Amino acid sequence: MIGVIELVGFGAELRKVIEWILDIMQLVMYISLMLEDWRYAWWVEA
C-alpha cells in the first residue's frame, strides 16, 4: 500500500512537470506566432 506522504510527493512532482510542459507549450506558441508575423511582414515588403 502506498503511503499518503509518497502520494502527496508524487502529486507535487506531477504538478511541477505539468507546469513545465505548459510553460514550454506557451513558449512554442509564442515563438510560432512571432515567426508567422515575421514571415507575413517579410512577404508584404517583398
From TrEMBL:
Record protein name field: Uncharacterized protein
Highest taxon of the lineage: Eukaryota
